[in-house]
Structure formats: C-alpha cells, structure tokens
Design a protein that fits this description.
23% strand, 8-stranded mixed β-sheet, 10 helices, globular, alpha/beta
Length: 243
C-alpha cells in the first residue's frame, strides 16, 4: 500500500516546501521536443505542475493525497486527479514528458517503470529530481545536522535513505540523458525554517510516538545565532532518461 505521509500537514507543505529553479524548466524546455502533454507524478501541491503549465499544452498531475491536491496551484491547462504512481487510468502512449519531484523514493520501482513504459510516447523523457537535508552556514548547520541525523533520524521512513544517497540506490532502466547540476538557494527567516521543518514526515512520526513536537526546542537553540535572514542551499540531484 502506498504511504501517505503528507496529508496531515498538506497546507504547511504547500507553504514552506522549496520550489525548483528556473534552470530546471529551461533544461526541460530544451530536452523535450514535443510540448503537448506531460504527467507530473506525485505532484503534491503542484510545485512542478505550476511551472510545467507554462511550457506544455496539457499537464496531468496525480497524487494519492486529496488534501495535497486541495492545496495545489490551479491553472486552466492543469488537470489534477487521485492516482497511484504505479497504476493510472491514462491511455497508452500519451506523454511527451513524465516528471517526479521529491517522491520516487516512495514508489514500487518496478511497477512504476512499467507504467511509465505504458503511458509514455516513444522517445519521451522521464525526469526525476530530489533533494535531501538543506545546508546552512556555521553553527546553524551544525545544530540542524544534529537535529536531522540524531533527533529525527530514527523517525524517518526507510525510504529516506534514497534521498540521503542522492537517489544513487534507485534503479533506473532507461537510456540516461546528460543533465546539468541544479542548486536551489534561498534567504530564510527563522519562521520560514520552522515551517519547513514542520513539513517533514519524520516530525509527524515523532509527534505520534512522543506526544510533542521537537521543532520548537530546536528553533530556540537557533534563535541566538540566526540573522534576520539566513542563507540556505538545497543541492538537487536528478535521474533523466529517454523512454
């Protein structure tokens, strides 16, 4: 059964999760020749779909969480629906591009790739992107690395390991396409950082087991070191292939 770790904090997820840089979509615009139809699989709140809708005629975005879709960005050429990654109602040979952002680690890889093969047009592109723990500067990074690995570490699902090793443990049976390195950089207030950490699935697991939220205590530790805005970098990693 597919895990739904994000419905409970869907509105927080929509507000505080990082988006993807313009360079990602410039790359997709270049590498995908036919711009007719794209499937954004496990769209969440539509962060990828929003930008894809500026390039493609039709965007079909699916997720297993209705609460996530309730918080999704709306556009005339985006159609949202509930569906598992491994089992959709799309017709064979439909899509020019299939995207998966920060989600493939949850999938049954073999079944998902079989579905990709079925619904993709010949020569279509599969674009997978993800990120792990963001990096900060100085003692702030030290505090947050400790929080990630030691405080919340035991509460992450086993699938998290795929993000920690930059998706290298995720099989990829398609002809790989060269892809540049992408980085996301922001300036965050402490309140923005707090919102992001509260969107973690591990925090929900921690609260369920311990009856309290560990984020507040960690934020208090950061308060004396945090400038008005702090630089934060999300290193991004990709798998891109021709189907």
């Amino acid at each position: 059964m597919a895990k739904d770790n994000f419905s409970n904090q869907a509105s927080i997820y929509a507000q505080f999760r990082p988006t993807y840089p313009k360079t990602v979509f410039d790359y997709l615009n270049k590498v995908v020749k036919n711009k007719k139809t794209v499937w954004d699989c496990a769209t969440g709140n539509g962060q990828m779909a929003r930008e894809l809708a500026k390039i493609f005629e039709n965007v079909y975005a699916t997720d297993i969480s209705q609460k996530q879709l309730d918080n999704a960005f709306q556009a005339e050429n985006i159609v949202y629906s509930i569906a598992k990654a491994e089992e959709t109602l799309f017709a064979d040979n439909t899509f020019d591009l299939i995207t998966v952002a920060q989600a493939i680690h949850w999938f049954d890889f073999e079944k998902f790739y079989a579905e990709v093969d079925r619904v993709a047009k010949s020569g279509a592109v599969l674009f997978v992107i993800g990120y792990s723990m963001p990096r900060f500067e100085g003692i702030i990074d030290e505090i947050l690395q400790d929080f990630y690995w030691n405080v919340t570490g035991p509460y992450w699902d086993a699938e998290r390991k795929h993000l920690d090793n930059r998706l290298e443990s995720v099989p990829f049976p398609f002809e790989k396409i060269e892809c540049p390195h992408f980085t996301n950089e922001y300036r965050w207030t402490l309140e923005m950082a707090e919102g992001y950490f509260n969107s973690w699935s591990s925090i929900q697991h921690y609260i369920k087991k311990n009856g309290k939220n560990p984020v507040g205590e960690m934020i208090e530790k950061l308060r004396e070191y945090w400038k008005e805005e702090q630089r934060v970098e999300f290193p991004l990693f990709t798998k891109v292939g021709r189907i």
